[in-house]
Amino acid sequence: MKPIHRQALLDTIRAAVAKNPRKMTLQLARELGVPEVEIVRALPDGRSVELDVRRWEDLLRNLETFGGVRILLSNGAATIEVDGQFGGFSTTGEFFNVQTASLDMHIRWQQLAAAFAVEKPGHMDGTTTYSFQFFDQTGSAAFKIFLNFGEPISPAREALFIKVRNTFRL
């Protein structure tokens, strides 16, 4: 993308976010006809910090320290939300496995192209959500891990979010 076009895209995204900061990034992406990763990458005011996706495994292993989280997986036809805890890690062929009593997830890690730590007003009530979001090579969300969802985050959990974000920041 040429620099002038990139700046126009950023301006368009930031205007849309300013108009409705609680809108889901997936919805904004569809409305603007861009990959969702571009919406997340352009969030204003430091609400989105790009992480080193090459360190995906260490980042995922660090998520175990948060205890219970909510994972969102979405495709063109459906979205699923699952509450669980990361752990029980292994690798089998093309899959990085997360298998605990509450979560059975198989990640095609070769498809991961970007990762972010995101702070954003929730779409339902405006409460700030804290999440780690992973995107595939097409710019679509691969999965999102929310540390809170509709409720305030505890100071200890927020401090851990900041620590992990700073550890994996690009």
Question: What does this protein look like?
Answer:
The protein is of the alpha+beta class. It is 31% helix and 34% strand. The chain contains five helices and nine strands, in the order αααβαββββββββα. A six-stranded antiparallel beta sheet has the order 1-7-8-9-2-3. A three-stranded antiparallel beta sheet has the order 4-5-6, with no helix packed on it. The protein is globular, with a radius of gyration of 16 Å. The chain starts with a helix and ends with a helix.
Biggest sheet strand line-up:
1-7-8-9-2-3
**Broad shape:** globular
Kindly report the oligomeric state of this protein.
Answer: single chain
Average pLDDT level: 92
CATH superfamily, by name, is HemS/ChuS/ChuX like domains
Number of helices: 5
CATH architecture: 3-Layer(aba) Sandwich
- What is the number of domains? 1
Overall structural class, as computed from helix and strand content, comes to: alpha+beta
CATH class: Alpha Beta
Terminal Cα separation, in Å? 21 Å
The CATH topology assignment is Heme iron utilization protein-like fold
Strand content: 25-35%
Low-confidence sequence ranges: none
